[in-house]
Amino acid sequence: EIVLTQSPDFQSVTPKEKVTITCRASQSIGSNLHWYQQRPDQSPKLLIKYASQSVSGVPSRFSGSGSGTDFTLTINSLEAEDAATYYCHQSSSLLHTFGQGTKLEIK
Amino acid sequence: EVQLVESGGGLVKPGGSLRLSCEASGFTFSSYCMNWVRQAPGRGLELVSSISSSSNYIYYANSVKGRFTISRDNAKNSLFLQMNSLRAEDTALYYCAKLGGLVRTDAFDIWGQGTLVTVSS
Prior knowledge:
Helix content of chain B: under 10%
Largest sheet of chain A: 7 strands, mixed
Helix content of chain A: under 10%
Radius of gyration of chain B: 13 Å
Number of helices of chain B: 0
Largest interface: A-B, 23 and 21 residues
Number of strands of chain B: 11
Distance between the termini of chain A: 36 Å
Strand content of chain B: over 45%
Oligomer: heterodimer
Radius of gyration of chain A: 13 Å
Number of helices of chain A: 0
Strand content of chain A: over 45%
Structural class of chain A: mainly beta
Structural class of chain B: mainly beta
Number of strands of chain A: 11
Distance between the termini of chain B: 39 Å
C-alpha cells in the first residue's frame, strides 16, 4: 500500500498569508496526486488534479507542484473561507490512498 | 446538474448487514468508474471499494475484503454497497464518488453528501 504523509497536521494562519502543505509518498507515484478541500460538515471538493493541473471553478490562489514522491499545495493570499481540512490522494496504485489531512485554521 | 445522492445508512448491530445506494444524475453514469469512500468520525478519508464502468474490475480495501460487495446498475444509474458482518470500526460517513475521467488514475471530481453508518450494540 502506498502511504501518503502530509505535513503539517494543523496550521493556524492569518488572512492574506501564503500557506504551503506538503504530501510525501512512500514510493514514486509520478504525477498521480490530487488535492481536495473539505470544509466542516461538507463533502470533499477537488482542488488540484495530477499534481499541478487546475480544476474548473477553483480560485487561482490554489496551486500544486511536485512529482515522484514530494508534492506541495500552495494557497496564496489566504481567505477566511479557506478554513478547512486538506487531503492529498494518490491514484497510482489500483487501490487509491489518501493522506491523513491537514487542518487549516484561520486566526 | 451533476449529482450523487446516497441512501441506506443507519444504526446496525455488530454482525449485521446494510445495503447502501447511490443514485447518479447529470452525467453518463455508465461511462465512469465509481467508488465508495468512507470517513470515520473525526478521521480522514479511506477508499473502500471501486468498480469499473462495466463492472469488469472491482477492488476492495483489505479492511472490508470478504465482507463488502460493490455493484452497479447502469440502466438505473445506481451504485450499491452491500455490507455484511459489520464491525464497530465500520462506523463512518460513506461517500459515493465519481472518477473524473475515463482513466483509472483520475481524481474523484464529484462526491455525494454521504450516508452515515453506525455499528453499535
